[in-house]
Design goal:
Elements lengths: L1 E4 L7 H10 L3 E6 L5 H6 L3 E4 L5 H8 L4 E4 L13 H19 L3 E5 L14 H11 L5 E7 L1 E2 L7 H7 L1 E4 L6 E5 L1 H12 L6 E6 L2 E4 H11 L6 E4 L2 H10 L4 H16 L4 H5 L10 H14 L1
Parallel strand pairs: 1-2, 1-4, 2-3, 4-5, 5-6, 6-10, 7-9, 8-12
Antiparallel strand pairs: 9-11
Helix pairs in contact: 1-7, 3-4, 4-5, 8-12, 9-10
């Protein structure tokens, strides 16, 4: 198959490209950086240099492809000038336009747990909107991948662990968090994108379900702090913490609302009704080695 991958050589897109190339597919990776071209080609893929904010570029690149994998690039939450809503909507609309105009028939879109919600999901609300836009497209089969909480997002707590000796936030603690590894997401996408489908479907992907307390123990053991605690704090305290380290206040509020939904069960209600029959292969104990490496470098 001729498959287009967005996301450059990110945590999901790189292992996805590697797996698809190894299986004999003709892979093109979209990247906004010319510096990535050589690395992409070393993987055995072709590079298409351009931006997902350019609908014409996307349409041209998608044309002639058997399938495309679409994702929204991670934005800089500390940029005071970022309009996250507009950025996300633009990319979602660009994907819809490019899919329609190019005539591609098979799409996998990276959405998120909580995308079923019409409100109270914080920054996840944009994924609900994009799913709605893509759902309107006809004559194209789309899988909406809804991963759970990424393991590597735990790295955001490294400064807190170093300076306060705890993980303190408004979710987790005694409540379960469904986690996922990018490697397991990549494998699930590789499976979906090469499998025929009629219409639209949602697929959740997760690697392991752990309480915040269990998570702290595993990470703490990996960094030589076996007594590391996960401390539950109020939404207001968590919000103030993010704003105080320089995060844009509106985005910080969206994150805190998302975390609150994770804690009170709202965000995961559809996930638990449709959880994966098989969890991914990568567990937190595996990822903890990578976490420890990052921790020791900071």
């Amino acid at each position: 198959m001729k498959i287009i991958i967005t996301g450059s050589l990110g945590n999901i897109s790189k292992p996805l490209a590697q797996e698809l190339v190894q299986k004999g597919h003709q892979v093109t990776v979209i990247s906004s950086s010319t510096e990535k071209q050589a690395e992409i080609e070393i993987l055995g893929a072709s590079a298409a240099i351009g931006s997902v904010e350019d609908a014409a570029f996307l349409t041209k690149t998608f044309t002639g492809a058997d399938a495309v994998y679409c994702m929204v690039p991670r934005a800089n939450y500390f940029d005071p000038n970022l309009d996250l809503d507009a950025f996300t909507r633009t990319i979602g609309n660009n994907y819809a336009e490019a899919i329609q105009k190019s005539g591609v028939k098979r799409v996998v879109f990276l959405s998120s747990i909580g995308a079923h919600l019409e409100k109270n999901s914080g920054i996840i609300l944009r994924y609900h909107e994009i799913e709605a836009v893509l759902n309107k497209l006809t004559d194209v089969a789309i899988t909406f991948m809804r991963p759970t909480s990424f393991f590597y997002n735990l790295e955001a707590y490294i400064p807190q662990i170093k300076f306060q000796g705890v993980i303190a936030t408004n979710y987790g603690a005694e409540k379960t968090i469904p986690f996922v590894s990018p490697l397991d997401i990549a494998s699930a996408i590789a499976e979906e994108i090469t499998t025929p489908l009629d219409g639209k479907k949602v697929r959740y992907v997760a690697s392991e379900e752990l309480t915040g307390n269990e998570t702290a123990r595993i990470l703490g053991t990996a960094i030589g702090k076996p007594d590391l605690k996960w401390v539950l704090i109020s939404d207001e305290e968590a919000l103030n913490g993010l704003v105080n380290v320089g995060m844009q206040p509106k985005i910080a509020a969206g994150l805190i609302e998302m975390y609150a939904g994770l804690y009170n069960g709202l965000l995961g209600e559809d996930y638990y009704q449709n959880r994966p029959a098989v969890m991914g292969k990568t567990k937190l104990a595996d990822y903890a080695k990578e976490f420890a490496s990052v921790y020791n470098q900071k």
